[in-house]
Amino acid sequence: MTKTELLNKTAQDPAQRLLLARALDKLALTRARGIPSHTGFLSPGEREALEGLIAASGHARHFFFGGYEGAERTLCVFLPDWQEEEDFLTSDAPVSLLRASFHESGALSHRDFLGSVLGLGVTREKVGDLLVSGNQCDLLILRELEEFLLRHLERAGRTALKLTPLPLASLTPPEVQTKLIRDTVATLRLDAVMAGGFSLSRGKAADFICAGRVQLNHRDCVKPDRTVARGDVISCRGLGKCVVTETGGLSKKGRIMIVLERYL
Predict the structure, then answer these.
(1) What are the start and end residues of each CATH 3.30.70.330 domain in the chain?
(2) CATH number of 178-263
(3) pLDDT for res 106
(4) Which of 45-54, 170-179, 206-215 has the lowest mean pLDDT?
(5) Which terminal residue of the chain, N or C, has fewer Cβ atoms less than 10 Å from its own Cβ?
């Protein structure tokens, strides 16, 4: 299958087509020259799209890496036949860790740090997860960006920062907090399930969906009547995300019982 045919088969829109085309170029480099290559940091939706492309192109040797196990934003690394994942991470790992410390009264958020980094002209694909905890933020970035940020990232908002490069092994990701929600719905439509997951009215949930603020399984969804199933991930900009962990069974009133795990 040619590059054009692969993109025609897997890309959903022009932006995704460009992302996948660049990934194919990286894969072609690895195959032609026998050297490892990698993409920029991918969102979960972009990763899912790329996994589809890799499957369609013959399951090239690859792995996803974001600096720690469970990272949300990850690189896709393509490996030549002679190299194993452990060898690559030992000698060629392209991810760096910078720890930004600040006065605790600064009360900075993920948005503050991301805005400050992008405000320096950095593109989103060069920045991975930003882990804010207490009076520090661990920034996972492409190694090529490290010196630039050490020189230029002095503040987040109005708060002064002190940046320190650290080995990835020193990273301790913050514990993920979730809340289990048990609810009943009349239907497994997206608006109904989302309303239960985020404590909204069904009408408000439908408004968020139609406004383009909601993703189902990391893909934009503007259809409130889309059916959801066990394992589906619902994300809403400004509210967070929840996972449908159980569906099935009827209550005494004939409603469908569901269980969701909401990330806090």
Answers:
(1) 95-170
(2) 3.10.290.10
(3) 61
(4) 170-179
(5) C
Side chain identity, residue 202: R
Q: How far apart are the C-alpha atoms of 129 and 10, rounded to whole Å?
A: 26
| Contact call for residues 74 and 41 (beta carbons, < 8 A) | yes
For 124-139, write each residue's pLDDT tens digit: 999 999 999 888 999 9
Fold for the domain defined by 95-170: Alpha-Beta Plaits (3.30.70)
Give percent above pLDDT 90 in the chain.
Answer: 82
For residue 221, give the nearest of 260, 258, 193 by alpha carbon.
193
The segment(s) of the chain belonging to CATH 3.30.1370.160 are 3-91
| pLDDT reading at 204 higher than 90 | yes
Write the CA distances from 145 to 49, 75, 83, 110, 220, integer angstroms.
26, 15, 25, 19, 30
- Residues comprising the chain, all counted: 264
Closest CA to 219 of 231, 202, 238, 232: 232
Closest CA to 19 of 44, 40, 35: 40
Q: Which of 104, 95, 114 is nearest to 153 (CA)?
A: 114
**For position 172, what pLDDT does the model report?**
82
Is pTM, for the whole model, over 0.90?
Answer: no
